[in-house]
Protein: GH3 auxin-responsive promoter
Amino acid sequence: MEKSRIEYLLKKIEEQTSNAGEEQEKILENILKRNAETDYLNKFLHGQTDKQLFKKYVPVVTYEDIKSYIDRIVDGEPPNILTTETITEFILSSGTSGGEPKYVLSTADCSQKRASIPMLMEAVMHKHIEGLDKGKGMYLLFSNPDFDTPSGLKARMFSSSYLSSPTFKTTLFKTVTTPIEIILSLNKPQSMYCQLLIGLIRRHEVLRIGTIFASTFPNCIKFLQDHWKDICSDIRTGHLSDWITEPDCRTPMLSFLLEPNSELADLLEPIFKNESWEGIITKLWPKAKYIDAIVTGSMSQYIGLIDYYSGRLPIISTFYNSSEACFGINMEPLNKPWDVSYTFLPNMAYFEFIPVDKESPQKAQKLHFNGVSNEESIEKLENGSAQIVDLVDVKMGQFYEVVVTTLAGLYRYRVGDILKVTGFHNKSPKFQFVERQNVALSIDRDKTSEADLSKAIKAAEIELEPHGFLLTVYSSFADTWSIPGRYILFWELKLRDSNTDRLKLDSNTMEQCCRRVEESLDFTYRLYRKMNLIGPLEIRVVKFGAFDELMNFFVSRGAAPLQYKTPCCLKIKEAIEILDSRVVGKFFSNGNLA
Structure:
């Protein structure tokens, strides 16, 4: 990136954050001016565009509250139900409680803002790390297939929309090692093979290694473990493996495998053959300065794994986006991953914040806004018992749930993310991501809530009834060290008609329980299982009394015995080990999900 371009983008950030209040006023004014006559807003504002009326009468909502409006647009009705903007595509977000994907309306304005975030972050990185213009980044990027909708528009994942954007195709892809055709290939194994092969051929150009989500790294390491011999053979012979048949992958590779390179193959093979792969990333790409990946929120579970394989290169989590809106960027990228905060960019959307109990960030202020007819919610806003604050009015150290309003038809929409204010950049606050509400288990981009997990386990219990078994208690954890990651459930069983703790477990029955749990989880989980991004679910049956020992452990750490509740999801290593040491049977889900 040219120095003048870097200076321009950095100046733009300073201007926006210095005038955060004014930028937010302009954003909301523009949204109301253009969308006040939509069916949705007109019900509350009757064509008026006053900010105070908007805050007084437009309810705070969740996806379920506006799902019927979005479904009508997906089915082909005109978008002026929610927005006067032209809808260009639908972005697929995490599943609803019913297991179906969320469809988020996207416009040209949305796409432009999504594409601008990496450009701004590129300028920030050049400011903090010298010499990035002397090489390229090996970014492991993958596109997913689009889905057709009755409206005639495509629905796609957030990452696929970004990779297909004009900004990426014409500008950003020039900073990476891999040709755009390989990145956009829908054959993920062949695309990954070619991206890694090119990255190794161009290893002395690689100054940074990255992906969008940190969860991609363990998959790539496993892929390298399985395919390094083929990669070294291709380098040694100058001939691409015959199993790479996809034209979008094979054709671009011809310009990289021009001739045999036995010297490079001889250098790489001992690295791969080493019994320990600790620090292998820095051995394969010795000039790499940092790892670029989102490691906040559910992705933080991969920090240890990345540290191990990278030799503790700095891990930089660059920006905070969601399918619903763009939020902010990391202005202090060299901070440790657990100290990452994101400066909100006030021109991205109109932001509001619901205060959350500081002592218990899991418990957001209970504003049970149940859609457009919820008079109790409006009354709470009017009498001030459910105060919602603007971007510039948040307080240092306070926890909040973020609410967004966008040109694309989201009005006072609860994203579900809990954030903590850690400081300010000029007049714009910096937030640390705390958690996504009600998420029990998380691997890759799948997030399973306690309610959804409980529902799935309930469905599986039916398989136990004919055999006289009773599920007395359960817990779980996300096994992120396995590749791919998977969910593991701990079950304590007893016979309904006996007090004996000696159980004869039927493998077929328990495997069917695993299967029933998986089939009952949501769209996102089932999709990633089909794509082998999540491994087969495992149930570990523990001996009777194991969960009593678990309770004793938490009581020893200060939990009140009378208020103790078995954790739905275990995240403390010692707690997992207590149950793991008492396992009497392990069972897996077999086969692929239908």
Notes: Residues 95-99, 359-385 have pLDDT under 50 and may be disordered. The longest strand covers residues 413-425. The radius of gyration is 25 Å.
